[in-house]
Amino acid sequence: MLNNKHWYDMEFADSEDLHALILEAGKVRDSYWGDTVTYSRKVFVPLTNMCRDECGYCTFVKHPDNPAANIMTLSSVSETLRAGDQLGCKEALFSLGEKPELRYPKAANMLNALGYVRMLDYLRDMCEFTLRETNLIPHVNAGTLTETEIKQLKPVSASMGMMLESLSMQLMRRGGPHYRCPDKSPKLRLQTLENAGKHQVPFTTGLLIGIGETWQDRIDALLAINDIHRQHGHIQEVIIQNFKAKPGTAMASVIEPDIDEMLKTLAVARLLLDPSISLQAPPNLQQHHSDYLAAGINDWGGISPLTQDFINPECAWPNIDTLAESCTAKGFQLRERLTVYPDYLTSEYVDASIINRLIASADVSGLVTTFS
Fold first, then answer.
1. Is the pLDDT of residue 8 over 90?
2. Using CA atoms, how far apart are residues 194 and 186, in angstroms rounded to an integer?
């Protein structure tokens, strides 16, 4: 799986020649991923929109005093899962704010009313319910996780994820977007990547660009991700996500990264990261699909026929047929994948109770079986 060639070249990373960067990134992508570009058909389950962190760009999180603050009940989770199942989704993406019960008594009381003390215990049971009652396979985005928590969640989820976002400590200072965000500590987030690697969990991570980090901060974060992957081999994909300014947030007036900045970051990420790591860019946050393909991506991430992007609800998912046409126009075929990439469809990475269900949905290439 791992390629020992070190793709990173500081001259490329500091190059102002965007065209040359893109050409080189495309070659790397083509050499490993060929002409196939993938996406995951999924349903999003925002288990709770409460969080003990207060990111300066987030509209997903609601304070417990807000009438919109909630924890999804079993009935609500079940309804969402079954609707996604009927629409042919393969993946249930559980996303949730980090440990709100540790900061807010109201959040703890809401959780207690459901019979739980910890959100992670409730999450585990909802993943187990998903496997027992539907055809969907859970993917968990629960933020920072200890080794014990990863061991708790692995038997009921095929993969996990957490955006590294940035390694910049500057962002955590007063006035920064990660001030009053204990879980955005770079040390804690890197430790989560390490913990996942120790327990061989197929893992998704990535960068959020445009939140105040420097270019060198991005390089440092990508190098750190790559180093951890070289130790454990478990980083199945890296997302390069552009910041979106939202009314009512502390960063509402911050200028978003432009397309050239996004393309340069994507291209350098492709040149820096081991070729076996899938490179993804969300297709709903900008409409430059052809440019993204040229810059070296091979995956569009999760697209849902049912649920919105709860983090960026103003940005609708693209139509799959339209996205496929964009891929075809650039010489690629769009294929549906599972929550676990083909290289990780083994009992080494996926719990024995889940692996056979994944393999049953895959063809010889490890992607979702297509019927003509």
1. no
2. 12
Amino acid letter for position 40: S
Task: Return mean pLDDT, the chain.
Answer: 95
Mean pLDDT of the region 285-313: 95
| pLDDT confidence tier of residue 4, bands split at 50, 70 and 90 | very low
pLDDT of residue 370: 81
Sign of CA dihedral 47, 49, 54, 60: positive
Q: Are 251 and 55 in contact (CB under 8 A)?
A: no
How big, in percent rounded to 5, are the helix, strand and coil portions of the chain? 40, 15, 45
Contact 158, 202 (CB under 8 A): yes
Contact indicator for 347, 359 with CB cutoff of 8 Å: no
Residue 139 CA: distances (Å) to CA of 18, 92, 337: 35, 6, 13
Torsion over CA: 38, 160, 190, 346 (sign) = negative
How large a percentage of the chain has pLDDT more than 90?
94
**pLDDT tens, position by position, 259-281:** 999 999 999 999 999 999 999 99
Confidence of residue 16 (pLDDT cuts 50, 70, 90): confident
Is residue 186 exposed (0-12), middle (13-18) or buried (19+ Cβ within 10 Å)? buried
User: How many C-beta atoms lie closer than 10 Å to residue 82's C-beta?
Assistant: 14
Looking at residue 258, its pLDDT comes to 96
C-alpha pair distances (Å), 17 with each of 129, 220, 353, 366: 51, 21, 49, 36
Q: Which residue has the tokens 């490890």?
A: 366
Which residues have CB under 8 Å from 137's CB, separation 6+?
A: 90, 91, 92, 130, 131, 157, 158, 338, 339, 340, 354, 357, 358
Which helix H or strand E contains 93, and what residues bound it?
A: strand 91-96
Environment class of 30 (CB within 10 Å of its CB; exposed 0-12, middle 13-18, buried 19+): middle
Domains defined for the chain, CATH in brackets? 10-360 (3.20.20.70)
Which amino acid type is present at position 313? P
| Tokens describing residue 338 | 């599972």
